[in-house]
Amino acid sequence: MVDMKSEIKFVQGNEACVEAALYAGLDFFAGYPITPSTEIAEHMAVRLPQTGGKFLQMEDEIASLCAIIGASLTGNKVMTATSGPGFSLMQEALGYAIMTEIPCVIVNVQRGGPSTGLPTHASQGDINQARWGTHGDHAIIALTASNHQDLFDITIEAFNLAETYRTPVILMLDEITGHMRERLHIPHPGKIPLVSRLKTSVKQGVDYHPYLPREDGRLPMSDFGGIHRYNVTGLFHDMWGFPTDNPQIVHGLLRHLLDKISNNVHLIAKYKEYYLEDATTILVSYGSSARSALHLVKNRRNRGERLGLLELQTLWPFPYGIVREKCADARHVLVVEMNMGQILREVKIAVEDPEKVFLANRIDGAFITPTDIRNILRLVQGKGV
Amino acid sequence: MAIKDYLRERFFPHMWCPGCGHGTVLNCMLRAIENLALEKNDIVMVSGIGCSARISGYVDFHTLHTIHGRALAFATGVKMSRPDLNLIVPMGDGDALAIGGNHFIHAARRNIDITAIIMNNRIYGMTGGQFSPLTGYGKLATTAPYTNIDHAFDAVSLAIAAGASFVARTTTYHAKQMIDIIQKAIQHKGFSVVEVLTQCPTYFGRKNKEGSAAEMMENYKNTTTPIGSKAGQENPDLIERGIFVDKELPEYCSEYNKIIQKAVKGK
Question: What is the ipTM of this complex?
Answer without folding.
Answer: 0.97
